[in-house]
Amino acid sequence: MLIISYDFTENKVRAKFAKFLKKYGRKLQYSVYEIKNSPRILNIILNEIELKYKKSFTNSDSIIIFPISEADEAKTIRYGYHAQEEKDVVMF
């Protein structure tokens, strides 16, 4: 799993980046996404950042990518809305 956190001063750039990330994962909080990790997905994201976003960075813009191992993912503690998303649903 990857946790990607970002902050852009320009609303248009921030919205465009959020829309891009939404294709690969789910929003956890404002400007924070959870993405299932694979080398292919990580390469797509890194290439997109390098080609489209890095050149427009200001001194206060940032993107941070946190890789989370499967072992650490299993230890993740969730509360509130996201705690319910990980539970299995049984339908009859």
Describe this structure in words.
A hairpin with a 2-residue loop joins strand 2 (25-29) and strand 3. The radius of gyration is 15 Å and the shape is globular. The longest helix is centred in the middle third of the chain and has 15 residues, at 39-53. Helices cover 40% and strands 23% of the residues. Strands 2-3-1-4 form a 4-stranded antiparallel β-sheet, covered by helices on one side. The chain has 4 helices and 4 strands, in the order E-H-E-E-H-E-H-H. The chain is an alpha+beta fold and 92 residues long. The protein has a single domain (2-85), classed as Alpha-Beta Plaits, CATH 3.30.70.
Helix tally equals: 4
Proportion of residues in helical segments: 40-55%
- Biggest sheet record: 4 strands, antiparallel
Q: Quote the average pLDDT.
A: 86
Overall body shape: globular
Q: Given this structure, which CATH class is correct?
A: Alpha Beta
Strand order of the largest sheet: 2-3-1-4
Order of helices and strands: EHEEHEHH
For the record, the CATH architecture stands as 2-Layer Sandwich
Rg: 15 Å
Strand elements, count:
4
Strand content: 15-25%
Which structural category do the helix and sheet elements fall into? Answer: alpha+beta
In terms of per-residue confidence, which ranges show pLDDT below 50 for 5 or more consecutive residues? none
CATH-assigned fold name: Alpha-Beta Plaits
Q: What is the end-to-end distance?
A: 31 Å
How many structural domains are formed by the residues? Answer: 1
